[in-house]
Amino acid sequence: MASLSLIANSVALALLFLLGSPVTQASAPSQRGQEIFKLCATCHGNQGEGNQSLAAPAIAGLPQWYLLTQLKNFRSGARGKHPQDAPGLRMGPMARTLKEGDLETIAAFVSQLAPHKLAPISTGTPQRGEEHFQVCIGCHGHDARGEAQLNAPPLRFSNDWYLISQLKNFRSGLRGANGALDPQGASMSAMAQMLPDEEAIRDVVTYISNLKDER
Amino acid sequence: MSVAASHTHEQSFFQKYLFSTDHKIIAMQYLFTGMFMALIGGFFVYVFRMQLAFPGAEVFGYGVVTPGEYNSLVTNHGTVMIFWVAMPVLVAAFGNYLIPLMIGCDDMVFPRLNRLSYQIFLLSAIVLITSFLVPGGGFGGAWTAYPPLSSNPQYSLTPLGSSLWLVAVALEFVAFLLGGINFITTVMNARAPGMKAFDIPIVIWMIVVASIVFMASVGPLVAGAVMLLLDQNFQVGFFDPARGGDPILWQHLFWFFGHPEVYVVLLPAMGIVAEVISVFSRKKLFGYKTIIFTTVGVAVLSFFVWAHHQFVAGIDPRMANVFTITTLLISIPIAEMIFVYIATLYKGSIEFNTAMLFALGFLAEFLIGGVTGIFLGSSGSDIYFHDTYFVIAHFHYTFVPIAIIAVFAGVYYWFPKMFGRHMSETLGQIHFWGTVIPMNVIFIPLFYLGMAGQHRRIFSYENFPELAHPYMQNLRVVATVALIVMILFQIPFFINFFRSIFAGKKAEKNPWKANTLEWTAESPPPHGNFRELPQVYRPPYEYSVAGRSSDFWPQNER
Amino acid sequence: MEHIIAQASTFAESIDTVIWVIALLGGFWLIVAEAILFYLIFKYRRKSHPKAAYITGETDAEKRWIHWPHYLVIVCDLVIIGFSIKVWYDVKQTLPTPDQTIRIIGQQWAWTFVHPGPDNQLDTPDDIITVDELHVQNSATYHFKLESKDVIHSFSVPVFRLKQDAVPGRTITGWFRPTKTGTYDIQCAEMCGLGHGIMGARIFIESPDEHALWIQNSSPVSHVTQQME
Q: A116-132 as b/e, with b when 16 or more CB fall inside 10 Å?
């Protein structure tokens, strides 16, 4: 048995040399996407559902343009380069691990994953949150589905703990502080300043995660 | 001692091959399990070397290698090759096969313990293989498993993989503890009448000393493994500074075992080589007692060198001076041992068959491994070389000779005894050159890369401007291609091995005209080994004694 | 070693000297041993030497052949130990008075560097905190305080020949003095998880003028004053 599998492997290896290329030629994008997604799945989960204990948010179903921008931001250091942003510092190297040409592929693949129903865990007051949410509607839409034209991602596919952490980051300059590299982040950073305190952040996120699924 | 004839009753296949207490069958079980695990370890190295040579590309037969998988592959390549290949083959397979035959008794003194040892070992191998397949993937925190990375799933990202890995390693240690007890007791109590301490063949001496070293060093690590398991699963915090623990403690426990472990596998390999070069140069071993004393010297010193793995790990810097001295001291018995082996060839009559070629290849290659070790044992230069590819090249120049080259010397040498047939010489010689030449082509570039500052366990060098240089990348490709060539040249071995078991030329009792007792038994030896238990009259290496018509003088001949 | 990798710190040269001493002494023994091994293999092959001699290697006259080389090995060992401990003492056991002290923090998977800023004091508001970029002044003696936030990392600057593990729960102090301007790699040399393979940083060794300019432009406090003007 042992010899058989070795022979099988060896024959395969020999073929590989005969073909002259150690690398199989470019496979279909989604197949390649599936291959690369193994990297993301380590933290973000096999279906991209996220893992709060690793501070890895749900990514399934986020729009391709947004995923691509964020991957590029992580690669360039526009995001995840602040010394206090520990999860961001972990994501930065992961984004740099990807090859330039694979960014589109992986963004497309993840955007096609089905978004998950996320259990709300934040305990704010949605009524107060609704008031604060009026500011967000301008870009993210009244149902928080996002608007690509305005570079506003959907919010309802994201975990509430993640939204809270990001709003805090935007407010304190851990994210979106670099206007030159990340203009969208910078404008969001300005918007986040309009939430007066942490309680307001909790309220608005509770409101978002309680939005009825109107399709 | 029981009479041999009483053992030769009929056995069912099941009894004979799966639940046997016969030391020869257990040895074969260890040998074949070890060979199978070597295929796994070999496949791992092929995959991650391909990733290093062609980063990001799809590896044929595997697919894209992600960083997590890369870490898991290098971790388990090391783990498998040391704990599931070198240990079972060198210590357990050769120990089990050779000890009763070479000291002239019918079996181990604790045959059931011996069977239990293999069963636990098999279980450990199954647990290890399972750990590659669980969600989250196999453990990727390096074979040294330093906490807090290994103790905290949030850091390692392999919650199941790291625990299963640790359980497998701990089980494996239990298996070898049982084996070790058996080896030592058997050699102490069951030697053939007339066999005094200095009539015991060198390979048996070395396996016994290795077993003693193993048993004396593994205790702290088994304790450490239990502590680490508790840390992983119950957040106990032995190694967690936030809870008053200390991550460096694990390093001491690990390396207190880890460095003696090197000698645990080195000694049986040296023993095999001693037997082979003595027989095929028709020479008495030069300074038999010197070899034994140096063996004991190495064994004792091996307990006092462990912290040379930790020079830059945050230990008290004054400690490094002590360990530099002890580490360089160990070069003295090792150098003496190598000198003795070389001197054995002087005025010999050397026959270049496959077993001898591998034994000589061991000496030539192991010398390189030994000398390059000095760079790492000396604290001053280790500041730079620590955790670079120089270390990788160094220890592969010791472990490949030990676990590959010496093992092949032993397999080619004892094959006629094990299976009653000869292996093909032609295929053997092809296998020898196809193994030894690529081995050098793999590791010489790695020495250079290490000197140029390339660190270990990095899945792609594209992100380090100084290491992404094309000439360095070319060296990586050279090493990878040489590796694949070396793997391909193992095919002749496997063909030779399995064909010869069934269709090789029939071997007589003593085809090499050797002196030791195993050659007085039938080939292959029956259950119970000897028709009549032998009586020993002389030391094992009386070759070319002046005034005798034949150039050998078996231990049991008057 | 210089032609393989640049020497950019004061102790890079002394560490390379140790490496050379070992290479010469070890290389000598390697070549001698391999030469004798191959000579014996060739000379005493069965074709040319069909009848082996009986030599026990137990008499003093025979053992001499082993013992003399063996005493020489001890002498070589002592020389190597001497060189090695001297360098080790200089690099790891002494701390020359620093011109500047920096803090280096390892975490999964980034290096954070805290530079003391214009007042040359750590832990003051004008500290310059950077990620994956270390700026140092050429020919100035540095102390570094090495820490880790999570797992064991190892701060390695190959051109300095410097390596020190960062251990969570401890602050390890070391020193270096750059001797060559330029930009070089910093690597993490201890397996630290998924991103270990990419946990690199760059060290910028600047001339005193460049370095002063960098401090002025980067200090958060000077930014504030500029904005206020």
A: bebeeebebebebbbeb
Q: Which of A22-36, B22-36, B146-160, B334-348 has the lowest mean pLDDT?
A: A22-36
- Is pLDDT of C225 > 80? no
Q: Are C195 and C109 in contact (CB under 8 A)?
A: yes
pLDDT band at residue B389 using 50, 70 and 90 as cut-offs: very high
Residues C65 and C164 placed together within one structural domain of the fold: no
Task: Please report whether residue C167 resides in a domain.
Answer: yes
Q: What gap in Å lies between CA B251 and CA B221, rounded to an integer?
A: 10
Test A86 with C131 for CB contact under 8 angstroms: no
Q: Which residues of C touch A54 (CB under 8 A)?
A: none
How many residues can be counted in chain A? 215
Evaluate if residue C78 carries a pLDDT over 90.
yes
**Mean predicted confidence (pLDDT) in C35-43:** 96
Q: Is C1 within the bounds of a domain?
A: no
For residues C146 and C87, state if they share a domain: no
DSSP SS3 for B506: strand
φ, ψ of residue A97 to 5 degrees: the values are: -65, -30
Residue B442 class from Cβ within 10 Å (0-12 exposed, 13-18 middle, 19+ buried)?
buried
Q: Please state the rounded mean pLDDT for residues C134-143.
A: 95
Chain C contact set for B342 (CB, 8 A)? 33, 36-37, 40
| Per-residue pLDDT reduced to its tens digit, A10-22 | 444 444 444 434 3
Kindly list the domain boundaries of chain B, sorted by start residue.
Answer: 23-520
Tell me the whole-structure pTM to 2 decimals.
Answer: 0.90
ipTM score over 0.90, yes or no: yes
The answer on C155 and C120 residing in a single domain is: yes
Cis, peptide link before residue B67, omega less than 30° from 0: no
Domain finish residue from C45, C64, C93: C93
For chain B, list the contacting chains (3+ Cβ pairs, <8 Å). A, C
Phi-psi region at B544: left, alpha or beta (left = phi > 0; alpha = psi -120 to 50): left
Please tell me whether residues C207 and C122 are part of one structural domain: yes
Q: How far B15 CA lies from chain A's nearest CA (Å)?
A: 21
Query: pLDDT digits over B354-368, tens only?
Result: 999 999 999 999 999
Q: What is the CA angle B147-B148-B152, rounded to 5?
A: 115
Domains and CATH numbers, chain A: 27-115 (1.10.760.10), 123-215 (1.10.760.10)
Indicate whether C38 and C148 sit together in one domain.
Answer: no
DSSP label at residue B421: B
Beta-carbon separation of A42 and B487 below 8 A: no
Q: Is the Cβ pair C149, A96 closer than 8 Å? A: no
Q: Does CATH number 1.20.210.10 belong to domain B23-520?
A: yes
As a whole number, mean pLDDT of residues B182-206 equals 95
A101 touches chain C (CB under 8 A): no
Q: What integer pLDDT is reported at residue A29 of this predicted model?
A: 55
Closest CA to B145 of B122, B124, B168: B168
Judge if C127 and C25 occupy the same domain.
no
Judge: B287–C200 Cβ closer than 8 Å, yes or no: no
Instruction: Give dist(CA C125, CA C99) in Å, integer.
Output: 19
Mean pLDDT over residues B332-345, rounded?
Answer: 94
Contact list in A for residue B39 (CB cut-off 8 A) is 2, 5-6
User: Residue B6: is its pLDDT beyond 50?
Assistant: no
pLDDT value for A209: 84
Residues C86 and C178 in one domain: no
User: Residue A32 phi/psi, 5° resolution?
Assistant: -60, -40
Q: How many domains does chain C have?
A: 2
> What is the predicted pLDDT for the residue at B10?
61
The residue range of the domain holding C179 is: 100-228
Can you tell me whether residue B504 is helix, strand or coil?
Answer: coil
CA distance C88 to B319: 11
Distance between CA C113 and CA C146 in Å, rounded? 10
Same domain, C117 and C87: no
pLDDT at C82: 95
